[in-house]
Design a protein that fits this description.
Shape: globular
């Protein structure tokens, strides 16, 4: 799947390599942008899709 948000692409790469610290940081950043209305919500929705689709460490 292709993701349009760089943060989500970074999240997928980190999740595939099993980098819990990076995935947690990216989720926190996206959540903060959503909570402060700095994004329209499409980034958070795409991140949720990636969370469901990608298994942790599957690319290792």
């Amino acid at each position: 799947m292709q993701y349009k948000h760089k943060s989500v692409r970074d999240y997928v790469a980190a999740k595939k390599r099993g980098d819990r610290q990076a995935t947690d940081r990216i989720v926190a950043e996206v959540t903060a942008r959503f909570n402060t209305r700095q994004t329209d919500g499409s980034e958070a929705a795409e991140l949720l899709e990636a969370t469901m689709a990608v298994k942790f460490g599957e690319g290792a």
